[in-house]
Amino acid sequence: MLIMSYKKAATLILMAAALLTQSCKEDNLLPPVNTNAYFTFINAAPFLGNDTKGTTVRALVETNGHTVADELKFYYHSIYPQPNTYLPFTEGDSKITFKDSTRTTLVTGIVTTQAKNYYSAVLTGSEGDYSAVIVHDNYEPVPDKALVRIMHFSPDAGEISLYRDTEKQEVLGSLDYKQVTPYTPLAPGSNFSFILRRNDGTSKRVGRFFVPAILAGSAYTILLKGFVDPPDGDIAAKSSQIVFYRN
Fold first, then answer.
1. Would you tell me how many other CB atoms lie within 10 Å of the CB of residue 146?
2. Are both 124 and 164 inside the same structural domain?
3. What is the CATH number of the domain that holds 122?
4. Among 61, 92, 157, 239, which residue's CB has the most CB atoms within a 10 Å radius?
5. How large is the average pLDDT for residues 131-147?
6. How many whole angstroms separate alpha carbon 50 and alpha carbon 112?
7. Domain with 165 in it: what CATH number?
8. What pTM value is reported for the model?
9. Number of CB atoms found within 10 A of residue 235's CB
10. Measured between alpha carbons, how far is 1 from 4 in angstroms, rounded to an integer?
């Protein structure tokens, strides 16, 4: 039989009580389940002119008057943290401040978020003329349809139309710069292209994306960014392009 001395037993009881107290305090600091709003961050603004600022963007998030995260650092050719991953933040009155690599503020976006809701915070524009666009990402799945939306962040493309190129090109809708369409139900399918064209009478193509497949019950985003005609001539890095991803 293992006999424990009174002194040792008392010490263990005190340690257990301390751990229980600490655990209760930590639990009290945790937010209730499912009270977070969720953000992903997108840099759709190619930098022009002075490249010493680089293509790094920082986002500082403040909610209800309090900074809720360290500055997030991301790049022009990426969506942070991932196209279909969102970071949790406290719900409420939120302010997203976009900064360049020198931590100079570019623009600030303001939104009131709600728990269990998903948002994209998008930086768009060009040197000296930036906008912060906050997009609500929630959707209701349609069992026998795929859902597709367009986000238009190409500064010089003007009004554009979306075409689905299967056996023939079928127009699906139009929108202007800094606009986002609702999710549109489409028949699922594979091996076709989404094409974006200028709606100015020229039908100039500003982006094309070959789609391996879109699936019923899923939602997708067609994000257009970059310049049709880059003002500084940097065609390689700043030409218009489509980023296609599943939400």
1. 23
2. no
3. 2.60.40.1120
4. 157
5. 95
6. 34
7. 2.60.40.2890
8. 0.82
9. 11
10. 10
Q: Does residue 13 surpass a pLDDT of 80?
A: no
**Token pair of 96 as six digits:** 């997203």
Domain hosting residue 193, numbered range: 139-247
pLDDT band of 14, cuts 50, 70, 90: very low
Q: Following DSSP, what letter does each residue of the chain receive, concatenated?
A: -----HHHHHHHHHHHHHHHHHHHHHHHHSPPTT-EEEEEEEE-----S-GGGTTEEEEEEEETTEE-SPPEEEETT-EESBTTB-EEEESEEEEEEEE-TT--EEEEEEEEE-TT-EEEEEEEEETTEEEEEEEE------TT-EEEEEEEE-TT--SEEEEEESSSEEEEEEE-TT-BPPPEEE--EEEEEEEEEETTTT--EEEEEEEEEE-TT-EEEEEEESBSS-TT--HHHHB-EEEEEE-
- Among residues 138, 169, 191, the one where a domain terminates is 138
Using 50, 70 and 90 to split pLDDT, how confident is the model at 15?
very low
Is residue 8, in this structure, part of any structural domain at all?
A: no
86 domain-assigned: yes
Separation of alpha carbons 85 and 101, rounded Å:
24
Query: Is 62 part of a structural domain of the chain?
Result: yes
- At residue 54, the pLDDT reads 58
- pLDDT-derived band at 27, boundaries 50, 70, 90: very low
